[in-house]
Automatic annotation (TrEMBL):
Organism per entry: Rehmannia glutinosa
Pfam families, alphabetized: Phi_1
Protein family (similarity comment): Belongs to the EXORDIUM family.
Tagged with keyword Flavoprotein: no
InterPro entries noted in UniProt: EXORDIUM-like (IPR006766)
Compartments where found: Secreted, Extracellular space, Apoplast
Protein name in the entry: Protein EXORDIUM-like 3
Keyword presence, Cell division: no
Residues spanning the signal sequence: 1-29
Keywords: Apoplast, Secreted, Signal
Length: 343
């Protein structure tokens, strides 16, 4: 399709967006335990209640901004060295979001909660999520250490490449930057495993919703690959077996899910979030960070499922199994997932 011209209003506000971004950064996917005490009984009993994450104090509100109601296309950008087997795991997860015929509990069932969110016309989040064109950056064109702003420069390179550039799709595109296990991104491992925001016309030329997720297998598995790896400050806790045989990528799946869910419901950071400050929004996946099953909360994952080979998961895709965190259900006011136990 022909290039879409950037919005004049966004160009006018670009310096303000730049200032806010520089001092506050994008919306982060945080880990749930940085301030926990090693001997706290919270590790055993935290969040054990009827409705996971339920709270009458959570005031998730709609702030009248756009959400992704048109069919969503995810454009992966593979930055660094990626094995084909790793790419297949991630592709199959994204492809499973719209696979309504998958056996329950399914990834498509998880997406039904995301679809409950609407825009100001009452239109729901799209039920169709597909993979679009992909871009490989095998030679680390912007180096092996990226800042939050250079992340946007990587996206610019992908959409403006002289050969096979990614399409410009500001209305329903999600640009997913995935960094390999030898790439450091600003704040990575400092309780940040992924983030999302929108690109600045002053850098990229367009306003495009995007997310970054890193492979933490070498840099900080105890921080970003839990429960497939265990933090040093939780003594005696054993890591669980991955469903697809790759600690880093299996852990990335839940962060990717986290970011796609929040991009769908809050792509320009002015739609669905809790809190009074749009610079620090609490979004639908933030409210359920670290919850994968019934009873989850605090530092307890909740009840998950085990395959015959001992692998841990909570959702089924088209051909694979995945471990994916739950999201906030604003209709019921608690975290929900397709593997919830029925009382």
């Amino acid at each position: 399709m022909p290039p879409v011209q950037p919005l004049t209003a966004v160009l006018t506000l670009a310096p303000l967006f730049f200032l806010l971004f520089f001092f506050t950064g994008p919306v982060n996917c945080w880990r749930p335990w940085p301030n926990s005490q090693p001997n706290s009984t919270d590790f055993l009993f935290g969040g054990s209640k009827k409705y996971e994450g339920s709270s009458e104090f959570v005031q998730l509100k709609y702030h009248m901004g756009p959400v992704l109601t048109a069919n969503i296309t995810v454009y992966p950008i593979w930055y660094g060295k990626w094995q084909n087997s790793q790419k297949r795991i991630i592709r199959e997860f994204i492809g499973s979001i719209s696979a309504a015929d998958s056996k329950p509990p399914s990834v498509a069932g998880w997406w039904k909660t995301v679809r409950l969110y609407t825009d100001q016309t009452g239109a729901n989040i799209s039920g169709t999520v597909r993979i679009g064109e992909e871009k490989n950056d095998r030679f680390y064109s912007h180096g092996k250490s990226l800042t939050r702003l250079s992340v946007q420069s990587v996206i610019k390179s992908a959409v403006s490449a002289s050969t096979r550039p990614l399409p410009i799709n500001p209305k329903s595109g999600v640009y997913l930057l995935l960094t390999s296990d030898d790439v450091y991104v600003q704040d990575f491992c400092n309780n940040v495993c992924g983030f999302h925001y929108f690109t600045f016309p002053s850098i990229v030329g367009y306003t495009l919703p995007y997310a970054w997720v890193g492979n933490s297998a070498k840099l900080c598995p105890g921080v970003c690959a839990y429960p497939f790896a265990v933090p040093d400050y939780i003594p005696g806790l054993k890591a669980v077996k991955t469903p697809n045989g790759d600690v880093g990528v299996d852990a990335m799946i839940s962060v990717i899910a986290h970011e796609i869910a929040e991009l769908a419901t809050n792509p320009l950071v002015n739609a669905w979030y809790a809190g009074q400050d749009p610079v620090f929004p609490v979004e639908i996946a933030d409210l359920c960070e670290g919850i994968y099953g019934t009873g989850g909360g605090g530092s307890y994952t909740g009840q998950m499922l085990n395959d015959r080979d001992g692998a841990t998961y909570n959702m089924k895709g088209i051909r694979r199994r995945f471990l994916v965190q739950w999201v906030w259900n604003h209709v019921l006011s608690y975290c929900t997932g397709p593997n919830a136990l029925v009382e």
